[in-house]
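Review this chain:
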Amino acid sequence: MSYSIMSVRSGSTKYLPLVLAALIVPALLQPCEKGDQDSSNELDFYSLFAMDIENDIIIMEKYRGKVSLVVNVASQCGYTEGHYKGLNYLQEAFKDTDKFTVLGFPCNQFGEQEPGTNEEIYSFVRNKMGSNFPMFAKINVLERDVPPTWQYIIGRSHKKPTWNFWKYLVDHTGHVLGAWGPDTRPEDLYDTIKAAIDNIDPEKARMKITRSEEL
């Protein structure tokens, strides 16, 4: 899908939120000057929209309050099996907290290793990889037609994906905590994710710090 004003001119209003977001995100990603508007009013990841793998608009606000691991996935990559296994592990490990989710975004820009349709990708992910985390429509993460969600995480992390399975950790307020390439296994991020989840509950985080200091 092309995130351009042509989507509106064609007569369809289904994609209007995405189009508007795509038009305003680049400006909003510009660093704030000292004395500018308070940072609490800045755009964040959960302020945006995305298309899921069934081509329905998803308001990312539904994930606010959770920690999200955003990943550009591919079905035919050397990292595919290991990464899906690791992503499934994280999704299951933190399931009972109800404060974490993996968000998968298929991309065919690296080695053309995600060539299938959204339907084929969905079947592969659910039936072969056994994954149950949310999947989104196939996108570009570089150059043209990058969706607002990925413009945001790339802009905030200052790290563009250079291959499949880049992982961006977004905290419960919608701000990017870090980014890791495919050489980092998903399960290696367990402690980082747990710390971000613990930080959702300030009292739990404070107690953890106190215990560490006592040790």
